[in-house]
Amino acid sequence: MIKTTILSSLILFGLACSEGSEDETRPVIEQELETETTDSDSLVENEEIPFAFLALGDSYTIGESVAEDKRWPVQLANEITKVNSNLVVETKIIARTGWTTQDLGNALVKEELDASFDLVSLLIGVNNQYRGYPIEEYPDEFEKLLNRAIGYAGGNKNNVIVVSIPDYGFTPFGQSNQAKISHEIDAYNEINKRIAEENGIKYYFITDISRDGLEKPELVADDGLHPSGEQYRLWVERIIADNEFLSIINN
């Protein structure tokens, strides 16, 4: 009789523990599920997205006389990641000091580039002017380069930008011939702006910034000719502030 009573008590105690245990585990399971969902959301927010940037040009794009991290394409890449921290920007620069439109075109023929860039920039023409080439040659050569740039962007014109030619007449090197240089740079910029707009390409005019070079020596590199890292920073500031440009890196 005593054994039967003890056995019955143990069975009842076991059932009670079982029911209580099930109730106690439910919040724990729900908490675990909530944690897993939060972790998943965090991974999406911090997902790394590759972003390929191709910069085409001459000494102004390769950053003659400034440190590599002061080149304007490199500074722009850094600003892009500040705007969209998920982007991992890989910057490829095809440019060389002294290159004309024809030199850049010849170099691109030798390059094996995929049509997969998320952003392509084009800034070219100052050496055509400096060497005294006939300006009549510039429109056709520039437009061919622009078409190449569009091709490298996979045909997406929204992902291509053209930057105006800065004015080296406002540097110690060019100031003695400033009026002639400025007049000719204006003529070249009228052409590249017109062609860019006719093709539906975003155009960034930075020439006015370069024309502060004599009043603000900090805008000129130590060689007395090329833009300084500070001037390039101002170019980038103008580009990154444009809502149309921001749409490229936020899509």
From TrEMBL:
This is SGNH/GDSL hydrolase family protein. Residues 55-234 form the SGNH hydrolase-type esterase domain. Pfam families: Lipase_GDSL_2. The keyword Hydrolase applies. GO terms for molecular function: hydrolase activity, acting on ester bonds. InterPro entries: SGNH_hydro, SGNH_hydro_sf. It comes from the Bacteria. Keywords: Hydrolase.
